[in-house]
Structure formats: structure tokens, C-alpha cells
From TrEMBL:
NCBIfam families for the chain: FlgM_jcvi (TIGR03824)
One of the GO BP terms on file: negative regulation of DNA-templated transcription
Keywords linked to the UniProt accession: Bacterial flagellum biogenesis, Cell projection, Cilium, Flagellum, Repressor, Transcription, Transcription regulation
Annotated protein name in UniProt: Negative regulator of flagellin synthesis
Entry's family note: Belongs to the FlgM family.
Domain spans labelled Anti-sigma-28 factor FlgM C-terminal: 42-90
Functional note: Responsible for the coupling of flagellin expression to flagellar assembly by preventing expression of the flagellin genes when a component of the middle class of proteins is defective. It negatively regulates flagellar genes by inhibiting the activity of FliA by directly binding to FliA.
Pfam family, one: FlgM
Segments for region (Disordered): 1-62
Annotated InterPro entries: Anti-sigma-28_factor_FlgM_sf, FlgM, FlgM_C
Segment forming the signal sequence: none
């Protein structure tokens, strides 16, 4: 199956819209919250917020590596290995579908 390309304008517009919505929500929530000097105020985080707050502690995320790759992309020196990408996509699809890799 061939997957069609998505225009960068559509993708950029969707991302910009999401960012504006998030910014508006955070601005609204910060403005509507009254200041409270009561130290007994409790805040309860959703499971998603808790998971996100611990994401930076995940050892599988390497910020330095992300920065190196981003710089290589900006410099135009980032090389892409289509074979490796295809292999990992197939492996991921097999994992998601619950199939094991065929034995050779």
C-alpha cells in the first residue's frame, strides 16, 4: 500500500492550531485561578500529567542525542538509511499485530 504525502502547509497549520489552543488554555487557567495563601490547598494530577512529569527521568530519552540530530538536520549533514527505517517499521508492525518475526 502506498501512503500519500501530507502537505507541509496542512501539517504546519494543524500544529500551529494545537499550540494556540494549548496556549489559550494555559493562559485562561492561570488567569482564572485566584491567589490563595492557604498552604492546605491540594492539587491532584491526572495519570497523564504524572506520566509526563516523569518523562524527563526516562533513561531511554537522550536530550544530547536529540540536539545532535537536530543540528545535523539544520546543517544538512544528517544521513537517512531507508533500509533501517523500513526494517524497524516492519518490526514495529509485527510487534503491534502480535506476530513474531519469521525464522530463517
Amino acid at each position: 500500500m502506498k501512503i500519500g504525502t501530507i502537505s507541509s502547509t496542512v501539517a504546519t497549520t494543524a500544529i500551529d492550531t494545537d499550540r494556540r489552543t494549548a496556549t489559550q488554555q494555559s493562559t485562561t487557567s492561570s488567569v482564572s485561578m485566584p491567589l490563595d495563601d492557604d498552604s492546605s490547598t491540594q492539587v491532584e494530577l491526572s495519570p497523564e500529567a504524572t506520566m509526563l512529569s516523569h518523562a524527563s527521568e526516562d533513561p531511554s530519552f537522550d536530550q544530547a542525542k536529540v540536539e545532535r540530530i537536530a543540528q545535523a538536520i539544520r546543517d544538512g549533514s544528517f544521513s537517512i538509511n531507508p533500509g533501517a527505517i523500513a526494517d524497524k517499521l516492519l518490526s514495529n508492525a509485527q510487534e503491534v499485530l502480535g506476530r513474531s518475526q519469521p525464522q530463517h
